[in-house]
Design brief:
By secondary structure, this protein is of the alpha/beta class. Helices cover 45% and strands 14% of the residues. The chain has 3 domains: 214 residues, L-fuculose-1-phosphate Aldolase; 183 residues, L-fuculose-1-phosphate Aldolase (3-Layer(aba) Sandwich), CATH 3.40.225; 210 residues, NAD(P)-binding Rossmann-like Domain (Rossmann fold), CATH 3.40.50. The strands form 3 sheets. Strands 3-2-1-4-7-6-5 form a 7-stranded mixed β-sheet, with helices on both faces. Bound molecules: zinc ion.
């Protein structure tokens, strides 16, 4: 959507689409257009309103202010997500000189048309006090290039002349709303209000007019900034290495960074990392001469603070003369230093009863390489990355216009620890059991693998669905509730295994749970067992499990956060049976490998456990192969009698389903369920006496 001028946007109004819409529907339409370009309205930020006639609960016709409800996003908001307020009651507040936030929120709640509507935005009063039917308030990149520039007021005047009113920075709330309302009333020639270090307010008699003015203001500001732009960020200081080199470097260092970013609180708080080492804007920034200093000035808008913190971590790096080891060390040191700095910032400003947030950076900038965003889940990490893009755009423009200025430390703290924001956090649901975790599942396209992936995703883990069958893995990944990617690998090939983990690292930063489940099976009496059959079983079930575990250990040790490996073996690993020597001996080796690795992993809190299913026929690729016929022949029955045969063979007389196995895997995968268990075996076979562990 971004045109060639940085920060410029397109007028997307389509009269045909807007025709016949109700007032509220038109408001939703206009809001969606604004949200479609994130350089205009970032996620959750900005708000829109309309004033219309409606009926209250008595049936009386009254003036109603419809304003975006707290917690919705302009890009996706629907008519039902706006809050209706009795305008007459709201406007009574114009008489007041001041009003404290809490009182204002309570007052507005009493003005709601219906009590079950979402709480109105904190900027609601701004919409009420501007005496026009339609009001838009956004935080566009191009506007903030001026609003965050040294001498912003003069620049605004140069850009917009008499059509603009400038309002110095104050935290959103009653006083700001009142100032904006008065500014519009007292300046009939004004078309735009610019809020220093914050954003834009426009208005109009119609939806199209208000929207059009927002677009006009943005494009005029973007043109203005572009006309003054020199070399971005003071020109290039370092040359970025080739894309493959940047990628390889990040694949090596991200697990260490992820570990560092997940510590600092009493318990590790696992983070999902979202790097960007390819966008031109990001590269221009991290290679720029002024960027290091610019990045440390502060946030570009109150709206950014919760997602990016007051500033990112900048890490010096010389791509030409330094390598992964130096960078890892510097990232660890940098994060530790950042936490100390954040704790000091908190203690300088803290007031009674405030609890410090996670002191780790949300955005890490690596000189010459790219940026890495981090948060407790993938959605939040994506948002941190998006807000970092916004900040980069604003800094680039403001720097060119004469220097970037941001919220001061006091202003930042007042927004970050704003009681109203803290209140919002108390309403958020508790984090999922596996939030922030990355799970790597081999054989992920099959019956058990798919069930495991679904189960772990439903508890909040990001999933890497690894399989020889990339298409099947893609289908499973697409069906999951949480972010997930497919990764193709033949687990018997060490380089393919390394490549698959690399995908996990570049996508999410590392790995916490590895479910080694890739499998095959064969059945034959010993005299008829070919060397090929023997080798294949041992290649996949022993060598493959070794390779997948070895790489997991390397990554987990770099992270320093412990981890959980779950081997999906078989009842046959414990129970001796005839005509499956190649398979069963390989499964036994797999089980013993898990126990050996439990010993090795223990000191690093890497747990290794085994789940032994038996005869899981549903959705299984193994059972679709010759194995079904072979097993049936071994028992002297027909292939379609196998389900019944297996059910009757176990003590509980139950069929074993993929979901049953997934439940056992979840037990070992989850710290909250099994942090004290390693080297263990859990049978999921309906009870087969020969396989009872002893
Ligand atoms: Zn705002």
């Amino acid at each position: 959507m971004e045109t060639e001028t940085p920060g410029a946007t397109e007028n997307l109004w389509d009269s045909q689409n807007a025709e016949g819409l109700s007032d509220l529907e038109a408001l939703a339409y206009r809001s969606n257009l604004l949200g479609r370009d994130r350089a205009v309205a970032n996620y959750g930020g900005g708000n829109t309103s309309t004033k219309a006639r409606d009926r209250d609960h008595t049936g009386r016709e009254i003036d109603v202010l419809w304003v975006k409800g707290s917690g919705s996003d302009l890009a996706t908001i629907e008519a039902g997500q706006f809050t209706g307020l009795k305008l007459g009651e709201v406007l009574a507040l114009e008489e007041r000189e001041e009003m404290e936030d809490g009182e204002m929120v309570a007052y507005l709640a009493s003005c709601q048309l219906r009590p079950d509507m979402p709480r109105g935005s904190i900027e609601t009063l701004l919409h009420a006090f501007v005496p026009y039917a339609q009001v838009d308030h956004t935080h566009p990149d191009a506007i903030n290039m001026i609003c965050c520039a040294e001498g912003g007021e003069e620049l605004a005047r140069e850009c917009f002349g008499e059509e603009v009113v400038w309002i110095p920075y104050i935290r959103p709330g009653f006083a700001l709303s009142k100032q904006v309302g008065e500014a519009v009333k007292n300046n009939p020639e004004a078309k735009f209000v610019l809020l220093a270090k914050h954003g834009l307010v426009t208005w109009g008699e119609t939806h199209e007019e208000s929207y059009g003015r927002t677009v006009e203001a943005i494009n005029r500001a973007a043109e203005f900034a572009a006309s003054r732009a020199g070399e971005p960020f003071g020109g290039r200081k370092v040359e970025p290495p080739a894309p493959e080199k940047r990628e390889a470097l990040l694949a090596e260092v991200l697990p260490a960074l992820r570990g560092a970013l997940s510590l600092g609180l009493e318990e590790p708080s696992h983070k999902i990392l979202r790097p960007d080492y390819t966008s031109e804007n990001v590269l221009t920034f991290v290679c720029g001469r002024d960027s290091r200093d610019l990045s440390q000035i502060g946030a570009a808008c109150p709206d950014h603070l919760v997602r990016t913190k007051i500033r990112p971590l900048w890490v010096d790096f010389d791509p030409e003369n330094e390598g992964a080891d130096e960078l890892k060390e510097r990232l660890r040191e940098g994060v530790a230093r950042y936490r100390k700095g954040y704790e000091a910032y908190f203690s300088r400003h803290e007031e009674a009863d405030e609890e410090m947030f996670d002191p780790n950076p949300r955005v890490v900038l690596i000189e010459g390489i790219g940026l890495v965003a981090a948060a407790n889940n993938a959605k939040e990490a994506n948002l941190s990355r998006d807000f970092a893009y916004r900040a980069i755009n604003v800094m680039r423009g403001a720097n060119a216009l004469g220097g970037y200025v941001s919220l001061t430390e006091e202003e930042s703290y007042a927004v970050e620890y704003w009681p109203l924001e803290l209140y919002k956090l108390t309403l958020a649901p508790p984090p999922d059991e596996l939030a922030g975790r990355v799970a790597f599942v081999t054989g992920g396209a099959g019956g058990i693998g798919g069930a495991v992936a679904r189960s772990l995703a439903s508890r909040g883990a990001c999933i890497v669905v690894c399989d020889l069958d990339e298409e099947g893995a893609g289908e499973v990944a697409d069906s999951l509730a949480e972010p997930s990617i497919p990764a193709r690998a033949d687990v018997t090939d060490e380089y393919e295994v390394i490549r698959a983990y690399r995908r996990a690292i570049l996508e999410y930063g590392g790995v916490d749970v590895v479910v080694s489940n890739a499998g095959l099976a064969s059945s034959a009496p010993i005299e008829e067992t070919s060397v090929e059959m023997w080798d294949k079983n041992h290649a996949v079930l022993v060598k493959g499990y070794f390779l997948v575990a070895r790489e997991a250990f390397r990554i987990m040790r770099d992270q320093g956060l412990g981890g959980s490996l779950v081997f999906v073996a078989s009842k046959n690993a414990l129970a001796a049976g005839k005509n499956a020597g190649a398979y069963s001996s390989a499964k036994a080796a797999e089980l013993h490998l898990a126990r050996c690795l439990a010993e090795e992993g223990g000191p690093g809190r890497i747990r290794v456990n085994t789940v032994n299913p038996d005869a899981v026929l549903q959705g299984s690729r193994i059972w679709d192969s010759g194995w079904r016929e072979e097993r049936a022949a071994a028992y002297g029955i027909e292939p379609d009698e196998l389900e019944d045969y297996y059910r009757e063979r176990n003590v509980l007389k139950l069929s074993v389903l993929p979901e049953d196995v997934a439940e056992a895997v979840l037990h070992f995968a989850s710290e909250t369920r099994s942090s004290r268990s390693t080297g263990n075996v859990l049978n999921v076979d309906g009870g087969v006496k020969d396989a009872y562990p002893r």
